[in-house]
Design a protein that fits this description.
By secondary structure, the chain is an alpha+beta fold. It is built from 4 helices and 8 strands, in the order ααββββαβαβββ. The protein has a 6-stranded mixed beta sheet, covered by helices on one side. Strands 3-4 form a two-stranded antiparallel ribbon. The longest helix is centred in the first third of the chain and has 32 residues.
Length: 249
C-alpha cells in the first residue's frame, strides 16, 4: 500500500510541474504581446498617416490675389499663385494589357480645380482664344525639408546652414513647366502650343512653413514685334479679383 501511494504522489507532482510550466509559458507570451512600446509606435504611425491624408496637394490662400491685366476692354494677361509643392509631369505608362494612362492626372486635376476656383468671374473658357500667342512665366518654389528648420520642426526659423534659395535638386525644371502647361489646356488657352515664349525658375520656398508654391504669369504677345501687350505702368489695366470663396482642394 505504501508503494502505491508513493507512486500516486509522484504522478501528482509531475502533473503539477507540467501545469505550472504551461502557465508560466502562456503568461510570458501574453506579456510579450502587450508591450507598451509597440502600442505607442502604432499610435504615432496612425496619426502620421491621418495627417498626410488630410493635407491637400494644392490650395489657394485668400491673401493671394488673382490679378487680371487689361488693355482697354481686352484681357492681356493673368497672374496667380497656387500653394503646394510643385510636381513634375510624369511620363505616360502602359499596363500589361496595353492600356496607356497618365500617372499625373490626379495631381493635374487638383491643380486645375484650384485655378478654376479663382476664375469665378470669367465664365468663358478658355480665357485666351486658340489664335492668340502667349508668353508664360513660371516660378517654382520647392518645399523645404525638415532638416532645414531649427529643431527639425516646420514653421521654426531656418538654420544658418540651410540650403540657399536656388534649387539644384530634382525634379527637372522642364518637367515642372510641362506639368503646368498641360494642366491649363482648355482653361487658360485652347492648347499649350499657343505658348510661344517661356520663362522658368526653380527656387526654394522661404515663406512661413515652406510647403512650396507656384507663381504663374501669362500675357498676350503682339504679332507685330513679339513684345508683351501688358501695360505695367497703367494702374487702370490691373484689377484685383476678390475671391468669392476660400476653396481648398
Amino acid at each position: 500500500m505504501h508503494s502505491v501511494s508513493t507512486s500516486r504522489r509522484n504522478c501528482y507532482d509531475n502533473s503539477l510541474r507540467t501545469t505550472l510550466r504551461r502557465s508560466s509559458t502562456s503568461h510570458d507570451a501574453i506579456s510579450t504581446i502587450r508591450e507598451p512600446s509597440k502600442g505607442k509606435s502604432k499610435t504615432k504611425t496612425e496619426s502620421f498617416t491621418n495627417k498626410q491624408s488630410t493635407t491637400p496637394l494644392f490650395w489657394h490662400n485668400a491673401s493671394d490675389p488673382t490679378v487680371f491685366h487689361y488693355h482697354n476692354t481686352t484681357t492681356t494677361g493673368l497672374t496667380f499663385r497656387i500653394r503646394g509643392n510643385p510636381l513634375p509631369l510624369q511620363r505616360h505608362r502602359q499596363t500589361r494589357r496595353g492600356f496607356v494612362y497618365n500617372p499625373s492626372q490626379t495631381a493635374q486635376t487638383a491643380f486645375r480645380q484650384v485655378l478654376e476656383s479663382q476664375l469665378v468671374s470669367q465664365p468663358e473658357t478658355p480665357l485666351f482664344e486658340e489664335t492668340i500667342p502667349l508668353h508664360m512665366s513660371c516660378h517654382f518654389y520647392m518645399k523645404r525639408s525638415l532638416s532645414d528648420f531649427v529643431a527639425q520642426t516646420r514653421g521654426r526659423p531656418l538654420k544658418m546652414a540651410a540650403a540657399t534659395v536656388l534649387s539644384t535638386r530634382t525634379p527637372d525644371v522642364d518637367n515642372l513647366a510641362k506639368f503646368v502647361l498641360d494642366s491649363l489646356n482648355g482653361l487658360l488657352y485652347a492648347d499649350d502650343q499657343q505658348i510661344v515664349s517661356l520663362s522658368v525658375q526653380k527656387l526654394r520656398d522661404n515663406e512661413g512653413e515652406c510647403w512650396g508654391y507656384t507663381d504663374v504669369h501669362v500675357s498676350v504677345v503682339s504679332d507685330k514685334d513679339g513684345s508683351s501687350m501688358l501695360l505695367t505702368d497703367d494702374p487702370e489695366s490691373i484689377r484685383h479679383v476678390l475671391q468669392v470663396k476660400n476653396h481648398l482642394v
